[in-house]
Amino acid sequence: MIAIRLALVALALACGMAGATAGADAPVPPSDLVRDFAGLDGKHVAVAGTIGQIRTHVSKRGERAYSFSVSDERAAVAVLTSSPPACRPGARVIAHGIVDGRSRRIDATVVSCP
Q1: What burial letters (b/e) apply to 39-66, b meaning 16+ CB within 10 Å?
Q2: What is the pLDDT of residues 80-113, one digit of tens each?
Q3: What pairing do the DSSP bridges indicate for beta strands 64-71 and 76-81?
Q4: What integer best gives the mean pLDDT of the chain?
Q5: Which residue segments constitute the domains of the chain, with CATH numbers given?
Q6: Does residue 48 contact residue 29 with C-beta atoms inside 8 Å?
Q7: Span 68-85, mean pLDDT?
């Protein structure tokens, strides 16, 4: 069952169907995203995995941003968001956002803890 799901996700990535608006498609694991970060640049994606340590950043203008990793057993993806996630490190998380291929991260607009 899991092998079939992974094969379908891989097929969707190969066909360029991984880009989705928040909530439209099932989230993909980080290991599937890191295979083609540059190819997904600018596309909407949802990534699901385990949230890592949350860091707070303050810009020169005083604006706050929060970064964390979303990982599975094989890979991790960096996520940047403007609001602090409600999840604690180690919890399951789903982040919806736009891939920044140059920075190799996801600029998240929605972060949820299912």
Answers
A1: ebeeebbbbbbbbbebeeeeeeeeeeeb
A2: 999 999 999 999 999 999 999 889 999 999 999 9
A3: antiparallel
A4: 83
A5: 2-112 (2.40.50.140)
A6: yes
A7: 96
